[in-house]
């Protein structure tokens, strides 16, 4: 039977070996905390963002619904870029350095659109959760 001292030595060796395997730094230069990300925000936060940037040429409200949905009513000042009609190809016409608030009807298309924008090098993207439906439920203004 192994001595207590030998068991402790083997245990210490195993723990050290496990720590080396699981705790090694991969040396990756990518720091996820510094990568741009889509910011999901509420309607109230979106309204505050719009109010803070009302006169900024560097702020774009992007409605990714269809043109017929857009014509029924949209956030004042919003630009329409239909998610279903060559959305990704159309992104080259937009300045990647500007700040974008993206919305749709319920928040699904805008989440996908915002992710595509991020993948295409856009850095400042806000996705309005709940979409125009939440905006209307909040009693906020539309223009047609």
From TrEMBL:
In this entry, which stretches build a coiled coil? none
Q: What is this protein called?
A: Rhodanese-like domain protein
Gene Ontology terms, MF aspect: thiosulfate-cyanide sulfurtransferase activity
Q: Taxonomic lineage per UniProt? A: Bacteria, Bacillati, Chloroflexota, Dehalococcoidia, Dehalococcoidales
Q: Which UniProt keywords apply?
A: Signal
Please verify whether the record's keywords include Signal: yes
Domain Rhodanese, chain residue ranges per copy = 55-144
Write the signal peptide boundaries.
Answer: 1-22
Q: Report if keyword Signal is assigned.
A: yes
Give the matching SMART domains.
Answer: RHOD
Instruction: Report the PANTHER family cross-referenced here.
Output: RHODANESE-LIKE DOMAIN-CONTAINING PROTEIN 15, CHLOROPLASTIC
Q: Which organism is it from?
A: Dehalococcoides mccartyi (strain ATCC BAA-2266 / KCTC 15142 / 195) (Dehalococcoides ethenogenes (strain 195))
One Pfam entry for this protein is Rhodanese
């Amino acid at each position: 039977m192994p001595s207590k001292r030998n068991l402790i030595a083997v245990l210490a060796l195993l723990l050290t070996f496990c720590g080396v395997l699981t705790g090694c730094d991969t040396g990756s230069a990518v720091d996820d905390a510094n990568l741009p990300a889509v910011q999901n925000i509420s309607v109230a936060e979106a309204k505050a963002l719009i109010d803070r940037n009302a006169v900024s040429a560097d702020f774009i409200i992007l409605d990714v619904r269809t043109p017929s949905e857009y014509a029924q009513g949209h956030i004042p000042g919003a630009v329409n870029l239909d998610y279903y009609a060559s959305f990704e190809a159309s992104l080259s016409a937009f300045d990647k350095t500007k700040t974008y608030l993206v919305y749709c009807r319920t928040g699904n298309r805008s989440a996908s659109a915002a992710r595509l924008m991020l993948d295409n090098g856009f850095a400042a993207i806000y996705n309005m959760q709940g979409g125009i439906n939440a905006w209307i439920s909040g009693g906020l203004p539309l223009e047609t």
